[in-house]
Amino acid sequence: MSTIDRRAILKALTASVAVLAAGGLTATPAAAAADVSEGWTTQTLGAFADTLIPGEHRFPGDQVCAGAVTGPGAVQAGVIDVMNSPQLPLAPLLPEIAALLDARAVAYAAVRLIWLSPSRPPFVDLSFSHRTDLVSGLFGSGDLDEPVWQVMSLIVGIAFDTAGQSDTAAALAQGHPGLAWLRFPEPDPDGLWRFGDFSYGRPLAALHPATTPSGSPA
Amino acid sequence: MTETTDVLVIGSGFGGAIPAYYMAAGGARVTILERGPRWGAAQFSHSMRLGTYNKIVDVIRGDGVSVVAGNCVGGGSVVYFAASLRAPSYAFERHGSIGRRMWPASLSRATLDPWYDRVEQALPVAHTGWSDVSYAGGVLAAACRRAGHTCNPVPVAVDTAACTNCNWMLSGCAFDAKRSMLLNYLPAAEAHGAVIRPLHEVQLITPSPESGYRYAVAYTVLDPDDYTCTTNVGIIHAKVVVLAAGAVGTPVILQRSALLLGGIPGAVGRYFSGNGDHVSVADVDESKAGSLLGLSRPDGTVYQGLPIGRPITSATYDYLDPSAPEYSRFMLQQIYFPPLTNILAQTTGAPGWFGVDKRRMRARWPSWLTLLAMTEDDNEGTFGVVPPTGGFIRLAPGLGQGTMSFRPTTRTRQAWDRADTALRGILEKDGLSRVRPWTEALAGTVTAHPLGSARIGDDPTTSALDDQHELRGFRGLFVTDGSAVPASLTVNPSLTIAALAERAAIGIATRVAEAGVTMTGGVPLPGR
């Protein structure tokens, strides 16, 4: 048997544990905020999603959606529903993940002398540009919690770009904000997609001279 | 009661289905264990709802790399994009990082060509023309021509008459137009008595204590509603084992079995390649596409065709130059991914993959053109500590944490950079589009073509298998999936994996016969 690389063991374990187990997360500064309320969890994770795919304020005074744009973003596309989807084993971990992000926000604010209100989650209290800066720093850092942010980002994309909580045809029929934003094509009446017109239908380039009879390279 | 079979096949994709057919048709009792569920056209849905496609496709995250892999009866052939290309001659001559030819001396493009011929007939592969090329493929072709390059329609394992160009190939084909293993080798194997057992995940291979049987294979039966739950366990004894669990699954099974097998070749779980896959998104300027390329659709729009048509329809072969040095050859291919991967696309400014500008770029999604460069990487991937069960730790349906690590070498990065430069030369010319590669921030480099993690070769120190795909030191234990392919091919590897499996079937049949099974030769192609 080949020699086992101890560093590889540690890296694999920490990567897995960070994503899989709340226990992995309680080893972080988030422990102090582990009793954070569900309301704060939703707000913090919503603000994270809004940083990745921004949307407009949902109502006057909306703090979660920073209102960096007009029109829908990940929150309007139902990202919180996807995070809580029974299809994902994520729901029990969300308070810990939100607390971890809020702990990051506290640290971020502290070194920049940004005053944070005690009345809302620290990450939510950051401006959109500060949220963006903080989130940028979560990636490529090699931090133990980086896999958490990677998975969470993929889920944000699943909510906006794929309407992952719904069948696609139904989501389109209901005007899902993300699919509408992409201008995802409509299906046939039976809910299946077919494209009768799909090709310019004419030669558009010379073929490579060494093409084989089956169409492969030589 | 002790379970036995003559030939146990682990995995039912190209690498498993093909030997399974030949062994069953030759007269052996064949059992196929497949980790994923058995779905057919009726179950394949046009939906991105969680709980649909992600039950049959896995994204397996490693350290620096993520792999997209099939997880169903038929394996990758069910969810792949059916591009069916022979590897160029030079791919077989590569030296890579080991300073000598990586492929066995007995294999070259010329010696593999007869096996390619067979697979092309058996699937079958359709030779496509310009009327098969999607709008997206057409934009690449027209841009190639304008930049002084050739471009070819890509042959596909698709019944083009039955194909509706729906672009849902990652979800399996609801119209049975894609010629996956479900439509050729697997039903032919079953017609000869092979038994397919879905949701059977192999954990361990050990020597068998049963007389006349060489290996005992331990498996768990997975709950169809939650693959992390085990509903049963079992052991099956086999005279010959064909391991084809995919380039991420196969090395892990062997690593877990190493102690009980008395040690395995050192090359198992090393030399992992992502086929040099490197994806970029071109944000096409519609007006430029009209004025520069002269393109127009029947409804008057110029392009806006990203989601329309088959996912792979055109590619330029201009950079497959056999006289060019290694790490400078690549194929540039038009490809479509469902918007699941939109998160990876980048704008030209910071922060790149997220934020206001990225959202604005999403509004132009129909005008994106996605490109896959298949380059020459350095086989720098390795597999680490074995997970408790399966090939990886399942985090969620369709998402796993794997044990592979891939730290791109300077040469791999240079290969990607050369492909990027070529792509920009074609697609950014006169402002036709802005091209940026996918970010590596979320998933490392992403590949749908894992290769090389238990590869064939002549050098025992750098290849786990001999040139007949037999694991060195283990008579009757074969590996026939993408793991066996020694290195990046610079084209989509499915046809090569299939051709190698066709070729390997002869050596496997010899071992089956040696084990006392009466085998008949001259087995025809499936369905003939």
UniProtKB/TrEMBL annotation, chain B:
Residues 445-501 form the Glucose-methanol-choline oxidoreductase C-terminal domain. Keywords: Cholesterol metabolism, FAD, Flavoprotein, Isomerase, Lipid metabolism, Oxidoreductase, Steroid metabolism, Sterol metabolism. GO terms for molecular function: cholesterol oxidase activity; flavin adenine dinucleotide binding; steroid Delta-isomerase activity. Its EC number is 1.1.3.6, 5.3.3.1. GO terms for biological process: cholesterol metabolic process. Its cofactor is FAD. Pathway: Steroid metabolism; cholesterol degradation. Residues 66-259 form the Glucose-methanol-choline oxidoreductase N-terminal domain. InterPro entries: Cholesterol_Oxidase, FAD/NAD-bd_sf, GMC_OxRdtase_N, GMC_OxRtase_C. Belongs to the GMC oxidoreductase family. This is Cholesterol oxidase. It comes from Streptomyces adustus.
